[in-house]
Structure formats: C-alpha cells, structure tokens
Amino acid sequence: MSKVVIVFHSGYGHTQRVAEYVAQGAGEGAELLQITAEGELPAGGWDKLNAADAIIFGTPTYMGSPSWQFKKFSEATSKAWFTQAWKDKVFGGFSNSASFNGDKAVSLIALQTLAAQHGGIWVSLGILPSNTKAAQRTDLNNLGGSAGVLVQSPSDASVDEIPQGDLDTAKAYGKRVAEIAGRLA
Ligand SMILES: Cc1cc2nc3c(=O)[nH]c(=O)nc-3n(C[C@H](O)[C@H](O)[C@H](O)COP(=O)(O)O)c2cc1C
What we know:
Elements: E1 4-9, H1 14-26, E2 31-35, H2 45-51, E3 54-62, E4 65-66, H3 68-76, H4 78-82, E5 90-97, H5 104-117, E6 121-122, E7 149-152, H6 164-184
Parallel strand pairs: 1-2, 1-3, 3-5, 5-6, 5-7
Antiparallel strand pairs: 3-4
Helix pairs in contact: 1-6
Bound molecules: flavin mononucleotide.
Flavin mononucleotide (FMN) binds at residues 10-15, 60-64, 96-99, 102-103, 153, 155.
GO molecular function, one term: electron transfer activity
Protein name: Flavoprotein WrbA
InterPro entries: Flavodoxin/NO_synth, Flavodoxin_CS, Flavoprotein-like_sf, FMN_Rdtase-like_dom
C-alpha cells in the first residue's frame, strides 16, 4: 500500500472538505496534514512528507494564486529541494475557489511547478470533462480540469454545500494518485 500524504491549507474549511474527499479516495493510511493559519505544518509533518510515496498539495485560490500560508509552506520545502529529498515521489494537487473559473488553474500550475522543482512525477486528473448540454454539477469533472482537481465552492456556500460532482472528482483523483504511487513504489 502506498503512503499518501495530503498537505493543504484551508482558511474557512471548504478546501479542508475537499482534502477529506481526496483522502477517502486515496484509501486507508492516507494522511491529512493541515497547514496552520500561520503557514506552519503540525508537529512531525516534515517527517511524514519525507516518508511519503505520494504528496498531494491542496490550496484555496486567493487573489488568483495559492494562499500565502500555502506559499510559505512551499518556500519552506526548499530545505528538501536542496538535497532533492523528494525526487521521484508522486505528486498531485487540487484547488478550490468561489468562481467557476476564479483563476484556479493558476494555482494548480503553481502546485505542479512546485512538484517539478522537487523532481517529482505529477499525476494528471485523467477524467474526461463533462461539458455537454446535459452536464450537471453532480458529474465528475464538470469544471473541465486536466492538471488536477478544480473545485467550486459558491461564495455563500457552507462547507456542506460544495457541489457533489466536484467532491466526487476529488475522491476519484485521490484514488488515481494512490494507485499510480502503488505501481511505482
Ligand atoms: C482573500 C481571498 C481571496 C480570494 N480570491 C479568490 C479568487 O481569486 N478567485 C475565486 O474564485 N475565489 C476567491 N476567493 C474565494 C475563496 O477561494 C473561496 O471562498 C474558497 O472556498 C475558500 O476556501 P477555504 O474555505 O478553504 O479557505 C477568495 C477568498 C479570499 C478570502
């Protein structure tokens, strides 16, 4: 079984809910590591990341980019970068924001670039978009992403009102990353 760690920031709980779905998909043993409001990892967090087969990054999109807390974490990963400690690990990512577009793709590309800096192997979403006239918000990948998971939490939605198709997409992606990491481990 591959060790999957989902490291994410969430200011108001919506991205946390997405992270929980990614973890469900990744299966037993998947660990959630929440970056604090100060941009720090919980105790033991770096050891968990160093031991992971796969690392999945998650961030809300704030002003068209990852949150500053996630950015602080990404700069702190430079310590692992110096020794290429995470080289050949499997990586993935997700971003959540209020608008359908909301520039989430910019955040995902930042996550993908971070993985590339570490010499990682990035996992694409691997789900065709649901984009016909009949498409529903309950469909998998109804926001039409490809690099990773895109989630839209309407600005007035509680954490329990995130469209189910987006959450199911997050779950399917967690499963895909875990399976690919398992094949390579
Ligand atoms: C400071 C700030 C900036 C935001 N910028 C964007 C944005 O660029 N695009 C967008 O669609 N939503 C934006 N939002 C909305 C959040 O992405 C959205 O509410 C998201 O669900 C928050 O996730 P969280 O509860 O995990 O923090 C912004 C919210 C905040 C607080």
